[in-house]
Task: structure prediction
Amino acid sequence: MIRIVLLDDHAIVREGIKRLLECETDMAVCAECGTVNQAISHLQRHGPDVLVADISLAEGNSFSLVENLAKAGVGVKVLMLSMHDNPAFVSKSLSLGAAGYVTKAAAAKELVPALRRVMAGETYVSSDIRRPAPSGAPKLTQRELDTLKLLLQGLSAKTIAGRLGINDKTMYGHRANIMLKLQARDLTDLQEKAVRFGLLD
Result:
């Protein structure tokens, strides 16, 4: 059972997400909240598998929460759910340690599969994220190429960071850049793009 905490400051949005997830036999919403402080309390109390968090909140945003959870090595995975389809928001979210990013416009079709991918240790990016048109093979730095190869081996962020001798935050930054440069939605898409552009030679 995938146990989920919802963070969104609009009760009607939380209700819609909750109803969507209640249709899945392997998912359960164990708590919902509208502020970062409430989210921290629920995370400590319930120990969920995933936090589905909106970026824009009445009291600010959830970026600092994502970063602090990643730094603390808390086991909960974070899936950002946002009205923004700007790649800059995706890049920032992933670079801070979020495991995925889904827009609210795509949530009805993509939230459930995104949760399953994230729980499988993958990174997921919503299919409707605005991306520039591809122009030939993307240019990855050597460190990004090293990270890409380890990601495709299914290794965790901590393991990859350890192998490359970098900290988690730097690894998350490389992962975000790779996903956006290759315009990849998930690990399968990332592998297909890597093969297509000859990045695994």
Summary: Residues 12 and 123 are 27 Å apart (CA to CA). Strands lie at 2-7, 27-33, 50-53, 56-57, 60-61, 77-82, 100-103, 124-125. The mean pLDDT is 90.
